[in-house]
Design goal:
heterodimer; A: about 525 residues; alpha/beta; Rossmann fold; GMP Synthetase, Chain A, domain 3; 9-stranded mixed sheet; about 30% helix; globular; B: Non-ribosomal Peptide Synthetase Peptidyl Carrier Protein, Chain A; 4 helices
Amino acid sequence: MEVFTLYDLISQNLIHRANHVALEKSNDSLTYGELDNQCTRIASFLYNLGLKKGERVGIYMAKSFEEIVAMYSASRIGGIYVNINNRWKVRQLKYAIKDCGIRILFTDSYRISEIHRSGILDDLECVILVGEYYNHPKVIMYSDIDHNYNIPKVRVIGTDIASLIYTSGSTGEPKGIMLSHFNIIQGARIVSSYLNNTETDRILGLLPFSFDYGFNQITTMFYCGGTLVLQPVPFPADIVNTVNNKQITGIAGVPSIWISLTKYLADTNIRLKSLRYITNSGGSIPIPVLRQMAKKFKGVDINLMYGLTEAFRSTYLPPKDFDKKMGSIGGPIPDVDIFVVDQENGLCGPGQTGELIHRGNLICQGYWGNNISTSKKIKSCPHLEHIIGKEKVLYSGDIVRIDEDGYLWFVSRKDHMIKSCGYRISPSEIENVVHESGLVLNTFAFGVPDIEKGQSIHVAVNLIHHEPSNIDKVMNYCMEQLPSYMVPHKIHALEDSFPLNSNGKYDKDGIMRLCGIDKCTTVKVSL
Amino acid sequence: MKNSIMKLTQDKLENYIMTSCNLGSIIITLDTSLFESGLLDSIQLLGLVEFIESETGNEIANTDIIFENLDSIRKILEFTSKN
């Protein structure tokens, strides 16, 4: 059976694998047949609730089977699911709900009281709640939804938008990246081709499903009929136990996970015998950790990958090249073209440095309701016209170097976006919150190299009143308003006004110097 | 964890989780899942472990940093009282 839409990923497995386990967690599992039943039940309910094709459905909850069912059910009847990072605070949740016009939200009993108290319920038509009963006229219990609805017949094609993923934008507020069914299916097809996934694979669902890389663990497994084992808690000891108890064959992780897991394996000398491969994305792993990984994951294929949510995945370093090109982001993944372009001198060759440009079917459909930002990011490239004409490509904003053998190496970001703990973070989003505290005159957020986090978040401020306790107050305000991965690691109170560059903008290097930070500062990682 | 001489109290633990982890108006009971729920993440885990270690005066072995010992206030109190 051909796979065109997200729902086809499940239904194609009903022919030969209806009794094969699709999803598993510590003491529960769902076969493809059972998963299909659940999705039919919820999709029918959403349809009868009046969900129209193209309408957005929010999901804001803990990692669970229900979270996956909600995503597939909404997209089955042409809805667009918006899986909102469950670490986000009310502030960001409100923004996403308003930005894309969500009226139906799936959530759980951990979060419903906060949603109620913050007034978010007023903006919604209904909330579908997983967990314990909550008394409110707009709340419908997930467990009360029955099978007494008609199976909807809604035509959905690959071009339709399936999902919005909110990520930090360089201009401040998060942007909703639009992914079509075709984008997502191609992501599963391409990744499973180079990871050689089959129905015998049992992948660990460790990363959040609101993250494109995390969601791809589901689609890849459904694409080849394998099993996804949910791992809600990222503690190294628990990961190791799950891998060995559940015979896990593949893990996708981000640098912070590999750092802590490698250290744990070194301390305990435990081996992960069932593991066939691991993949990294969301930032580069420090070289000393990579060296240690080669020993602690002996016999396991290590795939180092690079991508950004706007095009999901661009490059990878195949395991066979791991030893000789440790730290490189490799070359293009199958069915994708990668060009390196210097704005002035055109297409780059070996030894040269330029911006990474992505071409292919993984490029997203743009930013929700934001044509201006879309046309800046996805456009034709004059330097490539002689090869691909005016076809639109994705400008990554990442500067890379091509080595003598054609392998790519990440150099830096073109903009000031901070990359911390696998997240791309907008400095202005942090600066806005710091300003809102009402305690500062000027603020400037920037990233400082950090081996474990990639970058740590620093903020320079001019306080209105120079009292040391105000720094704590600003920090507390940030903790209230921002998800933990966006909270500044250090706030520097400067008495001097911020230095400016020749364009009249804040001079990052000058501000860092005033904060006493050397540009090359790194924090040592202990192994 | 060995030779615990100081005791981690429920009040102190609840206070730490509500203030340092900034859970806003989220209601936390003795059995509310802290990590499986996604309310706390691995960044906050490090702070929580440090807090427990400073309160009890004992280091927590990395093999003890598991869901079963740390996922709720009750689990943490039971774990620290056993050691």
